[in-house]
Amino acid sequence: MKHLLDTASLDREDAVAILDIAEEMALVSQREIKKLPVLRGRTVVNLFFEDSTRTRLSFEAAAKRLSADVLNFSAKGSSVSKGESLQDTIQTISAMGADALVVRHSGAGTAHRLAHTGWIDVPVVNAGDGTHEHPTQALLDAFTLRRALNGFPASGPVEEGPRGRGLDGAKVAIVGDVLHSRVARSNVHLLARLGADVHLIAPPTLLPWGAETWPVTIHYDLDEALAAEDFQAVMMLRVQHERMHESFFPNAREYARLWGLSAARLAVLPAETFIMHPGPMNRGFEISAAAADSSRALVLDQVENGVSVRMAVLYRLLTGQEETND
Amino acid sequence: MTQRTVLDAPDITRAITRIAHEIIESDKGSDNLVLLGIPRRGVPLATRLADQIAEISGGETQASELVGSLDITMYRDDLRGGSYRAPEPTRIPSAGIDGRTVVLVDDVLFSGRTIRAALDALADLGRPAKVRLAVLVDRGHRDLPIRADHVGKNLPTSSSERVNVSLAEIDGEDAVTISGGRE
Asked: Nearest CA to B30 among B93, B100, B99?
């Protein structure tokens, strides 16, 4: 495993191995010295061509806990705004000596391109490419779910956690703007690969072409779906206004009424159903304050687990010699 | 390939019993002891030592409070080369290691690099009063200035030979064998 570009090509064994390493990494956070010497003297470059708070901070914290040096690049205020091309930017960074790239870009396939063009020969981690994939988000969601569904604390250090297990038999709903969501794509592939029964619930205008070929069950009505199925977790997606250049629904109020996780819908859900959201949340829109702040919400656990999972990914990609078959 | 057995199951049991007595004697009791096994085969050895020590000291100390494991994977000096290694669990007894006598337990002492890594790992976990080393087999050929305090058996070997330790908890039987080497 040289790069982490998507979850569609991640096999179950590698995914479970990463989640298990993340369990060990979570234990480091309770120590007095919250640092491991694994990446001492190596440089991880965070390349963010698109806005991000939690993902960039989370990758930075993860790399620093592994003792790596971190260089942060954001396109705003850089030579990219003077018109520098992606190739020149990458080759400049390569010349400064990077040992790994963490890339977020609005163009789908950017991470794949960096991994395969030969502009730079280091492991590449996709931190979100357009509407394509966001594999570390899916891994941290799977980590959080695996903890919660097996009766462990959803975040924090746990000595004998759910190691070695997948998500077999778990019924998970992903609700909302699937069309623009890289989180949804990554989760569909990863959760299904781990054995979960994944359901997509969305208006037809917010489902991508070809969604019927995914390993999912599709519903077009939130209330009907919630009534018909006993979901163990419901993942609400952010409505991505910044990617919407057409009208996908009549107006915000109608979307909130038909597709939002309101207090009334929260009351209908079984008491043990967990609520997830990749953040940032649009409160009162796709998720009500009642749902976001309820005791069943795992939103902050997801953020906390992000650091452990990203430490595990960097550890997996940057230690050991590379197998020649990529 | 030739293979000969150098320690059988009763030999291993006797060695562990003797080391348990040595540890108690050198520490004048077991109140302040922590036994940390280095995965994988150091862990069952540390557990057996802890059981013996708890028995010898007359049930005053619980074996489970004495014993833990210390993974050194993330402290290795060859992490970048070689094949990828998954980390093993590190479990420290609830009382911690600060101010206590830590006995590191491993199956074979060879180059000393594992113990070097273990000392680094220990320093990140706390500040023990003393650190000692107990090994089932010392086969020589050290790369680093490290020695064991308690040795089950000193085994002169040539560096081309392989020392294989099997333990019932992991391999289904207890045995130490030597294989390979020049004919």
From this structure: B100
For residue B27, being part of any structural domain is answered with yes
Pick the catalytic residue from A2, A43, A54, A283.
Answer: A54
Query: Does the residue A4 lie in any domain?
Result: no
In this structure, which amino acid lies at residue A139? L
A82 is an active site residue = yes
User: Which sign does the torsion angle of CA A191, A192, A196, A201 carry?
Assistant: positive
pLDDT band at B58 (very low <50, low <70, confident <90, very high): confident
Residues of B with CB under 8 A from a CB of A: 71, 74-75, 79-87, 89-91, 120, 124-126
The reply to whether B72 falls in a domain is yes
One domain, residues A76 and A151: no
The minimum CA-CA distance between B156 and chain A, rounded to whole Å, is 32
Asked, for residue B111, whether it belongs to a domain, the answer is: yes
What span, in angstroms and rounded, lies between the C-alpha atoms of B106 and A282? 54
Report the CATH number at residue B37: 3.40.50.2020
The count of structural domains within chain B is 1
| Residues in B touching A319 (Cβ below 8 Å) | 79-80, 84-85
Domain count of the fold of chain A: 2
| pLDDT tens, residue by residue, A104-145 | 999 999 999 999 998 999 999 999 999 999 999 999 999 999
Q: Assess if residue B35 is contained within a domain.
A: yes
Q: Is A104 a catalytic residue?
A: yes
User: Could you tell me which residues come within 8 angstroms of residue A6 by beta carbon, excluding any fewer than 6 positions away?
Assistant: A112, A126, A132, A133, A135, A186, A189
Cross-chain Cβ contact B80/A321 below 8 Å: yes
